[in-house]
Amino acid sequence: MELFERRLKISRARGDRRSEGHMLGNLGAAYRRLRQFDRVREYIECDLALAREIGDRLGEGQAMGNLAILERNLGKARRAIELFEERVRLARELGDRRGEAITLFNASLACRDLGEMESARSNARAAWRIFHAIGDANADAVQRLLREWG
């Protein structure tokens, strides 16, 4: 945590906005592990705003995905799904196939949380197809989960 905070200060002092965004995201992830969700939200929202400000579309997508995961962790699956859908659109626009697959998989988990199993399976199948097509090892884990879900 301390290292990320130091690197954040250095990035700001240098005017390195992209690095600043990375450090904000890293701090959000670190606070998520500590389950300090108010701090997580603070860092993710700063990361998202910064990415939009500097036109870092990939960073924007990553921050948006992190915000969606936070919402799901807080029991707000419907809000998470909305954010995941927005993240999928952005990933497709950018041609970020892996990001798209990860987001579809995460959306499937949020749908499962709501008991919407058909949507959960549909999103998981779409994630599997992409993971499989790009040769990503996550394909196996998604396939196992699909078998479990029937």
Distance between the termini: 41 Å
Shape: globular
The number of helical elements comes to 8
Q: Which runs of at least 5 residues are low in confidence (pLDDT < 50)? A: none
Instruction: Please state the oligomeric state of the protein chains shown.
Output: single chain
Spell the H/E element sequence: HHHHHHHH
**How much is the radius of gyration in Å?**
16 Å
Question: Using DSSP, what is the number of strands?
Answer: 0
Biggest β-sheet description: none
What is the average per-residue confidence, as pLDDT, rounded to a whole number? 96
Q: How large a portion of the residues is in β-strands, by DSSP E?
A: under 5%
Structural class, by secondary structure, is: mainly alpha
Describe this structure in words.
- The relative contact order is 0.08.
- The longest helix has 18 residues, at 37-54.
- This protein has 8 helices and no strands.
- It is globular.
- The protein has 150 residues and is mainly α.
- Helices cover 87% and strands 0% of the residues.
- The N and C termini lie far apart (41 Å).
- It has helices at 2-14, 17-33, 37-54, 57-73, 77-94, 97-113, 117-134, 138-149.
Features of the shown structure:
150 residues; mainly alpha
Could you write a compact summary of the structure shown?
The chain is an all-alpha fold. 87% of the residues lie in helices and 0% in strands.
Q: How are the secondary structure elements laid out?
A:
Layout: H1 2-14, H2 17-33, H3 37-54, H4 57-73, H5 77-94, H6 97-113, H7 117-134, H8 138-149
Helix pairs in contact: 1-2, 2-3, 2-4, 3-4, 4-5, 4-6, 5-6, 6-7, 7-8
